[in-house]
Write a structure and sequence with these properties.
The chain is of the alpha/beta class and about 475 residues long. The protein has 21 helices and ten strands. The chain folds into two domains: about 260 residues, Spore Coat Polysaccharide Biosynthesis Protein SpsA, Chain A, CATH 3.90.550.10; about 150 residues, no CATH class. Helix 9 links the parallel strand 2 and strand 3. The protein starts with 6 loop residues before the first helix and ends in a 10-residue tail after the last helix.
């Protein structure tokens, strides 16, 4: 059984063996938060022109366009069926509904099967081999913290948690052209007192370029590279638990659990907490059973250093339709590890904490960026998974990427019925809709009963807002805006 770590486990890190480090941090907190620019000034690093190559062959661009076009074919076919729902005595519409239901049912049983495989391997002790486990725990970890216009308070909490976390680590912070001088002063204060490596970009270049610079210019002899966001707070044991799966030499990347610091703030954050839990403890846990987790979270992830160096140029030079990519770098880095036949795992006991947007507007902006990256990276997954990860290929092709566009006709019919005939919706359509939703999220009722209230809100929120964002993302996938900045 996994150890459940509460937020207080981080907030009250005061064991005697660590008292000196905590006291030193707290003693200097005020000084670090208001450090004089003159006292801490260091020569600003001159930005280095990217040395990576832009990867955009004509063949790859053609494949991307064909796959992208095929999604519009699925969407168009769904709209056509919607317009013909009364043709042939309604038989076409009936078949369409049955196919969609069978797709949902098949995906549910697929997830159940993966979860059972994972549970069986855990009971048999087959997750991580014992040999080499001690060497992994003593391995050197390079921790990279990219930062851009982060509040000084959040940045302080993030770097403080990294310093206090267990593990043989070196810490490096890359400022991606922030305009906030107070945050820069704080970074310099940490560098001066706790041996944190720093680099400053003159102008904002994006998170993937910050990661590229750190991996190629700042890391010395690390065995593993850990990346965290600058607003992430870590549990004390996060690093040691995160690198434990590397005892298996086939593992190339591991991602940790993400919990919300502000989950109890309002109904939206509670809903997001359930949404996160489903994504991590149901879907990533299931994918982890076969080492095919599709996305290592930017909040807390680790990579084997040698293969990471081998793919970092391709990562920084990613293109879509021949144009450089900006967001969703965590998903693409995971794709490259999977493409090179490395296993990617989920470590549920490696815990990190972050805050989610607490307003509907802020949350929808974040989700819009994520959904664009989801479409782009799912297309990329299909270009290689058929060769190296057949089950992952089927999951993305039949369910993850296809279902939102295949079900477009059903969603149109649902909205039209609610508007034109609400009583018919309540008596006839609502029971079918609830059946579809229960089938889709059935594993939640077995593995996450305490999250069911948040799930019920999420089910409604998804159909009203998030689903339509998926459709919008298909049409705007080439938009490179970060949106939330």
């Amino acid at each position: 059984m996994n150890t459940i770590v509460t937020k207080s486990a981080y907030l009250d890190i005061t064991p005697k063996t660590r008292a000196g480090g905590v006291a030193l941090l707290e003693q200097n907190r005020a000084a670090m938060m208001h450090w004089s620019e003159a006292e801490t000034a260091q020569p600003r690093a001159t930005p280095v022109a990217p040395a990576h190559t832009v990867y955009a062959s004509k063949g790859r661009i053609f494949v991307e366009r064909m796959m992208y076009f095929s999604l519009f074919v699925v969407l168009g076919a769904s709209v056509y069926v919607f317009t013909q729902q009364h043709a042939w005595g309604g038989k076409i519409w009936e078949v369409y509904n049955r196919v969609y239901f069978l797709m949902l049912l098949g995906y549910t049983w697929f997830i159940f099967a993966l979860l059972l495989v994972g549970e069986r391997r855990k009971r048999r002790g087959q997750i991580y081999p014992l040999e080499g486990a001690q060497a992994v725990q003593n391995a050197k970890i390079a921790v990279i913290v990219p930062s851009y216009n982060e509040s000084a308070e959040l940045l302080y909490k993030a770097i403080r948690s990294v310093i206090l976390a267990d593990g043989n680590k070196e810490i490096m912070v890359v400022d991606d052209g922030s305009k906030d001088e107070r945050g820069k002063q704080l970074m310099r204060a940490f560098a001066r007192k706790f041996n944190v490596k720093l680099h400053f970009f003159e102008h904002n270049r994006g998170k993937r370029h910050a990661l590229h610079y750190a991996v190629t210019n700042m890391i010395n002899d690390a065995d593993f590279v850990v990346t965290i966001d600058s607003d992430t707070v870590l549990d004390r044991h996060a690093f040691t638990r995160l690198i434990a799966p590397f005892a298996d030499p086939r593992v190339g990347a591991v991602t940790g659990d993400v919990q919300l610091l502000n989950e109890k703030k309002n109904w939206l954050t509670r809903m997001v907490g359930a949404y996160y839990w489903i994504g991590l403890h149901i879907y990533k846990e299931a994918q982890s059973s076969l080492g095919m987790v599709v996305c290592c979270s930017g909040c807390l992830s680790s990579y084997r250093a040698k293969p990471l160096r081998g793919i970092i140029d391709e990562f920084a030079g990613q293109t879509f339709f021949g144009e450089p990519c900006t967001h969703s770098e965590d998903r693409h880095l995971t794709n490259l590890m999977l493409k090179n036949k490395w296993r990617v795992m989920f470590a549920p006991d490696a815990v990190s904490y972050t805050e989610t947007p607490s307003t509907v507007r802020g949350f929808l902006k974040q989700q819009q960026r994520w959904k664009r990256g989801y479409v782009r990276e799912s297309i990329y997954t299909l270009t290689y998974a058929w060769r190296v990860r057949p089950l992952l290929f089927l999951e993305i092709l039949l369910w993850e990427l296809t279902i939102p566009f295949f079900s477009f006709g059903l969603m149109l019919a649902l909205m039209l019925t609610i508007i034109t005939n609400p009583m018919f919706f309540v008596h006839s359509v609502l029971p079918a809709w609830l059946t579809f939703m229960v089938v889709r999220y059935l594993p939640m009722f077995f593995y996450g009963k305490r999250k069911i209230p948040g799930l019920l809100v999420y089910m409604l929120f998804y159909d009203v807002f998030l689903y339509w964002q998926s459709i919008y993302a298909l049409f705007t996938v080439r938009n490179k805006s970060w949106i939330t900045r």
